[in-house]
Each structure stands twice: as structure tokens, then as C-alpha cells.
Amino acid sequence: MTAAPQTRERRRLRGLPGFYAVVMRTAVQSQFQYRTANYLYMLGMIAEPVVYLVVWSAVADAQGGAVEGITAGEFAAYYIVWTLVRNMNVVFTPYGWEQRIRQGELSGQLLLPVHPLHYDLAYFAGWKFVVILLWIPIAAVLTLVFSPVFDVTALELLVFVLAIWGAYLIRSLLLEALGMITFWTTRVSALYQLWFTAELLLSGRLLPLALLPGWAQTVAAWSPFPSTFGFPIEALVGNLSTGQLWAGIGVQLIWIGVGTLLATGVFRLGVRRYGAVGN
Amino acid sequence: MAGTRTDRDLQALRLVGTFLRVGVQNELQYRTNVLFSLLQSGVAVGTSLAVLALVFSHTDSLGGWSGDELLVVMGVHVLMGGVIRSVIQPNMQQLMDDVRQGTLDFVLTKPADGQLLVSARRFEVWQVVDVLVGAALVVVAVVRLDRPVGPLAVAGFLVALLLGVVVIYSFWLLLTVLAFWIVRVDALVELFDGMYQAGRWPVSVYPGWLRFGFTFLVPLAFAITVPAEALTGRASGWLLLGAAAFTAALFAVTRFAWRVGLRHYSGASA
User: Fold this and answer.
1) Which among A50, A87, A220, A267 is placed 20 to 30 Å from B160, CA to CA?
2) How close is the nearest chain A Cα to the Cα of B70, in Å?
């Protein structure tokens, strides 16, 4: 009977869920060691939303209190939640694929019996738990400074918690697919930059999507970008109806499907062209 | 013996000229990079203009600035960004590496002023694209302003711009000199890059405590807002005089910090 717990432990770690559990735990432990570096990085990120918030608050003031019905307090709520969603948006970068392929680091990963995508997804997902923990004091300070207006229902909170992980998955899968273009050419930085610019303008990162001109809102609605940024924020701080909330989750599921197909498809085609270099 | 002060100044100027030439020759090897710089510049300016258009589709003025006046601010922001990326940042990053690896010895043993040498070694000529694009933006903005801009305003603008370059240079060197004490200062550089984005808007837009920070802690006000104010007729002679005094003070502090930092530097394989 004494061997029973051990067997159970071994069984738990077998298979893909076991792989995720181990990698995520490793990520939490190793990233906690670099908590100061993580914190400086997170503090550096605050400048961006604070600038947006200040500019839109100034516009709201100039317009007699609100822009398109959004008040200064609502802008504050938007950009404070923004800081968490931005951190959920940090995923394995496409530049990382360039290094993996150019320096032959991929060779080792190909020998494992798990798809390389799983490692990235698991590692960054584990890291998120550290980030969320570190984020709480930052959010508290921002809340004290900018006095946001929050009006959150239980359903909105539930959808938000689901949506930030949906956002994480969608952005991970799409950027993995984008990064794997390095299998064919290593001069991709221009392409990445165009992608990131489109994302900045159409995702809700730069400004709430309601402030875009009509045609741009239409373009954004057909792109994956709002699902990764604007939707999770709006789910929590906006006034979406129950139907809109679940529809947003539905759209996220569609993009998770598209992203999975793209990432696995591009990998299958690309890996044939991969010739290991290095020592 | 080249002992007199003017002789030494002349020699220093010649030295900077030589470094500049070598830097340009080095970069001319990689000609396709100009295309990337152009594209990068184009995307960055396009984004800035889109942001400006978006903001001004909802309002007519921001903190007392019109759209065309803010275009001046953005032009200066892009221009100054080009100066930073072509001269200041490459040199300072080289300095950080040298301090970390102990290779600063090779600079310090040369018979010229150390601060001058570490500040003029690298020159990334393709980044000058941003300087030209920024200048073009400023010109376009001035043409679109529906009031004449006199020669005095232009002169004030040029002086303020020059002071701004010195302020940004001094501030960067001050940050870099920290490397003598804490070896890893990369995170500070990231932090500065994030802050620099705030200079896209005139500091008067920011609430009091932030305005103070962007004026004296991270001197974006003197580097970007003051030149733009000079060109749009907002700056008095007193403001320019104040900017000059601040610049001189910051430069002196930096020079002092450099000397103290050097004493902390222990050299290669120490």
C-alpha cells in the first residue's frame, strides 16, 4: 500500500495533460526566480496605456465629459484592465522561431514525442500565473491614481476569465504560424512589423474599438485582433448583453480553430524544408 | 606639444570627423538596410498620423494644441528618435557592453578625452532616414499652419532642437554611467524606450505629477515639447533661457557622474 501514492503520481504525469502540468510548474518556478526582471518589464509596459489614457481623458474633457459615450472613468477602467490583457498577450514571439530555425535549436525539440507547439503553449501559460500575481499590486496603484468606474456582474467576470485565456491561445497560435514562415525565408521582420501595426490599430490596444471610424470597425470585426484584446476588456468593463458575451466567446473558439489549423499546417509543410545547422 | 586649448579642441573635432567617416563607411557595406529603415520609418510615421487622425476625429484641440501644431510635435519626436537611434543609443549600448566585458580599457588608454571617444564611436547612418522624415513632417506641419512663422521662431526652434539633443545625450549617458555600479542596465534602456513614446504628445497634456516627471526626471519636455513650442510661437525667450540653463546643468552633472563612474571601473578580467 505504501507504493500507491507514487504510482498515482506517475500516472498523473503521463500523457499530454501530464506534460502540460510539468512544463507549467517549471515555468512558474523559473519565472519566480526572475521576479525583479519580470517586474521591471511589467512596469515598463505601463507607460503605454497611461499615455493613451491621458490623451483620451483630455479628449473627453474637451468634449464635455465623454467621447462616443465613454467617460474619463470608463477610459480608466478600460486601460487598467488593458494592462492585464496586454500581459496575457505576451506569447512566444515570431522572432524566437527565427532563432530556433537559424541556429538549429529546433533539432532537439523534434526528437521529443510531443509537438513543439505544446511546449510553448504550456510554458507561457505557466508564466501567466506569475504575471497575474505580480499584476495585482500594479492594478491597485493604477486604480487609486486614476479612479476608474467599474460595474461588473458575475457573468461578465466569468466570461472575462475565459476570454483572457482564449486571447492567449489565439495570439499564441497565430504568432507561431507567423514565426514559422522563417522555414522559408529569414527576412521576415518587415512582415512582422506590418502585422504588429495592424494589430495595434485594430485590436483595441491603441483605443477602444468604438472610437474607430465605421469602415475600420468592419475590417476589425473580420480580423482575429479584437478577440485577442478588445473583446476581453469589453467583456469586463463594457456593457455587452448576455448574447454578445457568449457570441464573443464563440468567435474566439472559431479563431482558436483557425489558429490551430494554421499553426499545425504551416509546421507540417515547413518542417520538411528544415535542415539542421549548428554543432 | 599640442598644449593649448584651441589645439586640443581642433584635434577633438578632427577625431569626431574621422569617427563619423569610418561609421558611414562601415554602414555602407549593408545597403539593403536602407530599404528596411525606410519601411520601418514609413510604418512608424503612418501609425503616428493614424493616431493623430483618430484623436482629431473626436476633438478639435488637445490641451490647447490644434492638429497641425501637434504634427510639429510628432515631427520633432520622429526627428529626435532618429538622432537617438543613429548616434546616441548605438554608442551608449557599446559603452554598456564595454563596461561589462572590460574592453573599455582600449578606449581609456587612447590619448583623447574618454567621454568624447565613447560618445562618437558608432554612427548608424541608415537611421538618419528618421531625421529626414521627421524634418519633412515639421516642414509640412509649418506649411499647413495658417499663420506665418517668422525667422525668429525658426532660429528659436533650431536652438531649442540643439539643446534638446544635448539634453537627451546627457540623460542617456547618465543612465549608461549607472553600468559602472550595476552591471545590467538593459532593463533601464527598455524603460526609457517606453517613456520616449510619451513624447509624441506635448507634456502640457499630462496631469501635474506626470508633467513634472517628463520634464525633469525623463527630460522629454526639453527634448521635444520646447522645440515644438518655439516653432508654434508658444515659447518666450525666458523659456529658451531656462532650457539652456537646464541643459548646461544636466551636462555638467553628467560629466561629473562620468568622472566618478570611471573611478569605479576596474578594467578587464578584474
Assistant:
1) A50
2) 12
Query: What ranges do the domains of chain A cover?
Result: 15-271
Could you read off the pLDDT of A82-122 as tens digits, one per residue?
A: 999 999 999 998 888 888 887 888 888 888 888 889 999 99
Residues A156-182 have pLDDT tens digits of 999 999 999 999 999 999 999 999 988
Q: How far is CA B44 from the centre of its chain?
A: 17
The answer to whether residue B17 neighbours chain A at the CB level (below 8 Å) is no
Cα angle B96, B213, A76; round to 5? 110
In chain B, where are the structural domains located?
12-264
Amino acid at B270: A
Closest CB to A55: pick one of B36, B47, B55.
B55
What is the rounded distance in angstroms from the CA atom of residue B259 to the CA atom of residue A158? 58
